[in-house]
Design brief:
The complex is a heterodimer. Chain A folds into 2 domains: 317 residues, Thiamin diphosphate (ThDP)-binding fold, Pyr/PP domains (Rossmann fold); 33 residues, no CATH class. Chain A is built from 13 helices and 8 strands. In chain A, helix 6 links the parallel strand 3 and strand 4. Chain A starts with 9 loop residues before the first strand and ends in a 7-residue tail after the last helix. Chain B is an alpha/beta fold. Chain B folds into 2 domains: 181 residues, Thiamin diphosphate (ThDP)-binding fold, Pyr/PP domains (Rossmann fold); 128 residues, Rossmann fold, CATH 3.40.50. In chain B, 37% of the residues lie in helices and 19% in strands. Chain B has a 7-stranded mixed sheet, sandwiched between helices. In chain B, strands 9-11-10-13-14 form a 5-stranded mixed sheet, with helices on both faces. In chain B, strands 1-8 form a two-stranded antiparallel sheet. In chain B, strand 6, helix 7 and strand 7 form a beta-alpha-beta unit. Classes of the chains: A alpha/beta, B alpha/beta. Chains A and B meet through helix 5, helix 6 and helix 13 of A and helix 3, helix 4 and helix 5 of B.
């Protein structure tokens, strides 16, 4: 027997958990302006997330999927994208959305039970959240196919979770993107847990990046808590896609420091010691330590930033809470461009009985 | 004017719209060089190129999902599913996303997609090739479901489906693909969606049907005419939303209603028509409503398929029974 094909999976990390920079780091690691911008966003996302959980706990928001611990994986990806690229998220990539201009008030409106939350004021070609797991893989591929047909230099970026890699749609998306050399980047955010199922029970593969091999496309693993590595890796994949060389699968390794959603209690299925250990690797302190080493950040900056983030988040919460209740027409008015008569009749019926639930 | 089969009419509608609207693209399994397993897309790749007529990898859910992504970027994809029995893997994409995208984003992103597929049995095809699953789609909000019954209506309704700003499930009766030829003007004129087509005026009984059962029903009506029974035959054409007004008007005139469909009876579209007539036209009825449908069984393999599909005899008997009431 002879070997007919061989593969390897590389791992990329530039900034370790203590904030030490590897010698191989790209120029981005010396660009303090960009690093500070990402750090500010990561801090804002953390403040937003904390507030959103608080809103849910106090009955002012519906079930919410926290992004605690994912800040680097989310901000790093968006920071590598161009404005006119298209993002297809799962449902907790708030850092990516906020970087791309989606308002915090919109995100809250969605989780507060209002479809208007997905009518973004910016990034208007980006997809809304995708709750049926991994089905967004095909949307990202389809968007990229449209871009390729038109010969545009744009790309799609699609997120999927570690659990999502078990779905057929995950492979279908990678496969067609590879077969047609589509300008697409797929980012698996491997946070270790699909609700209560750990990654070791999800698959026998050593990495999720290697799932790319079956689709004939490059797969790379990156420290998802290192925003420099995430942005660099996604940036290279996007450049490759823009050159017409096809898609890339990136596995960003991070940890879900929160419950799956506010309706979940992770203490039922995972050890506190594991979570404690994960907190020592989370993305913010390492970047902060590195910025301090660069002498572009100090405690005074930190205090000022936190106060600024609180103000921004509180303003968004005010906007969210002051949004008027949708009328029952909202169920009907965006179903069809040309609504059938039967639907208009039902719209009238809903108007007549609006607010009558429980009476 | 050329006489063409339904499959040729479908092919011409594609070609017309692709020539006049550069955003129209075709995707599916074997739709390129092979021109589709029924030849609906024959010649299109040659004429419009491989970018606009794409042979996809073999995965129905992927085809529907790609169409969604492409549509949100301003293209108008026409996706072919080879046989209706293979639609199930695509249901997640169609129902969870395609049908909901406009509503979920308040109109920011839309899916002007046509999903075409053969519908029904009667062509001695293998297992999973002969299903009639229209009710499954009609039950989902956000979709239009269309089923032509002649070459001319296939041409006009397909053009309307492609031009519609929302997703349309376009069901093509496989039994009719090559059954008859009809003069069809290749003039790019669409036919209206959301309306029934009155194929035969009558005064004694209204028969509502669609797809391949239209030809059997017309044959039954002809036979009954010889017995002095005057049948009004309505081709439903758009199965969702249903043009209830035309049906109710007809029933008000005839006082009797027979619904004929190849799909199973249980929770079929016939039930929705019967319920609506019961709600809004009960006092026009001189006799109970009759349904002539496929059985609530699995579509049998080819040896029994013609015993599954309602026969002309079943239709004429149902009409005679309503008249005897």
């Amino acid at each position: 027997m002879k070997t007919v094909a061989e593969f390897e999976i590389k791992y990329c990390q530039f900034l370790d958990a203590e904030g030490n920079l590897a010698a191989s780091a790209p120029p981005l690691a010396r660009d303090s302006g960009e690093l500070l911008k990402m750090y500010r966003f990561m801090t804002l996302v953390r403040a937003f997330d904390t507030k959103a959980v608080n809103l849910q706990r106090t009955g002012r928001l519906g079930t919410y999927a926290s992004c605690l611990g994912h800040e680097a994986a989310h901000v790093g990806v968006a920071a590598a994208m161009q404005t006119d690229d298209v993002l297809a998220p799962v449902y907790r990539e708030f850092g990516s959305q906020m970087w791309r201009g989606v308002k915090m008030a919109s995100i809250l409106l969605y989780w507060g039970g209002d479809e208007r939350g997905s009518d973004f004021s910016a990034a208007r070609q980006d997809f809304p959240y995708c709750v049926p797991i991994a089905s967004q893989m095909l949307h990202g591929a389809g968007v990229a196919m449209a871009m390729k047909i038109r010969g545009e230099k744009r790309c799609s970026v699609t997120y999927v979770g570690d659990g999502g890699t078990s779905e057929g749609a995950f492979y279908e998306g990678l496969n067609v993107a590879g077969a047609r050399a589509l300008p697409a980047v797929f980012v698996v955010v491997n946070n270790g847990w699909a609700i209560s199922v750990p990654i070791g029970s999800q698959t026998a593969t050593k990495t999720l990046a290697q799932k790319a091999i079956a689709a004939g496309i490059p797969g790379i693993q990156v420290d998802g808590n290192d925003v420099i590595a995430v942005r660099h890796t996604v940036g290279e994949a996007l450049e490759r896609a823009r050159r017409g060389e096809g898609p890339t699968l990136i596995e960003a390794i991070t940890y879900r420091l929160s419950d799956h959603t506010t309706a979940d209690d992770a203490s039922r299925y995972r050890d506190a010691s594991e979570v404690k250990e994960a907190w020592t690797k989370e993305p913010l302190p390492r970047l902060r330590a590195y910025l301090m080493k660069l002498r572009v950040w100090d405690e005074a900056h930190e205090v000022a930033l936190k106060a600024e983030c609180t103000r921004e988040v509180e303003a968004a919460v005010d906007e969210y809470l002051s949004a008027p209740q949708p009328s029952t027409d909202a169920m009907f008015d965006h179903l069809f461009a040309r609504p059938p008569k039967s639907l208009l009749e039902q719209r009238e019926l809903a108007r007549r009985y609006a607010g009558s639930a429980g009476h | 004017m050329a006489k063409v089969t339904m499959i040729e009419a479908i092919n011409r509608a594609h070609a017309w719209e692709m020539a006049h609207d550069p955003t129209v693209v075709v995707l599916g399994e074997d739709v390129g060089i092979n021109g589709g397993v029924f030849r609906a897309t024959v010649g299109l790749q040659e004429q419009f190129g491989k970018d606009r007529v794409q042979d996809t990898p073999l995965a129905e859910g992927m085809i529907a999902g790609l169409a969604i992504g492409m549509a949100t970027q301003g293209l108008r994809p026409i996706a072919e599913i080879q046989f209706m029995g293979f639609i199930y893997p695509a249901m997640d994409q169609i129902c969870s996303h395609m049908a909901r995208m406009r509503n979920r984003t308040r109109g920011r992103l839309t899916c002007p997609v046509v999903i075409r597929m053969p519908h029904g049995g009667g062509i001695h095809a293998p297992e999973h090739h002969s299903e009639s699953l229209e009710a499954m789609f009609a039950h989902h909000a956000g979709l239009r479901v269309v089923c032509p019954s002649s070459p001319a209506r296939a041409y006009g309704l397909l053009l309307a489906a492609i031009r519609d700003p929302d997703p349309v499930i376009f069901l093509e009766p496989a039994r009719l693909y090559r059954l008859v030829k009809q003069e069809v003007a290749d003039d790019g004129l669409a036919l209206p969606l959301d309306v029934c087509y009155r194929l035969r005026e009558g005064s004694d009984v209204t028969i509502v049907t669609w797809g391949a059962m239209v030809s059997d029903t017309l044959r039954a009506a002809e036979k009954l005419e010889g017995e002095g029974v005057s049948c009004e035959v309505l081709d439903l054409a758009t199965l969702s939303p249903i043009d209830h007004d035309t049906i109710l008007d007809s029933v008000a005139k005839t006082g009797r209603l027979v619904i004929v469909h190849e799909a199973p009876r249980n929770c079929g579209i016939g039930a929705e028509i019967a319920a609506t007539v019961a709600e809004h036209g009960l006092y026009d009825l001189h006799a109970p409503i009759k349904r002539v449908t496929g059985y609530d069984t699995i579509m049998p393999l080819s040896r029994l398929e013609n015993d599954y599909i309602p026969s002309t005899a079943r239709i004429t008997d149902a009409v005679r029974e309503t008249l005897a009431e």
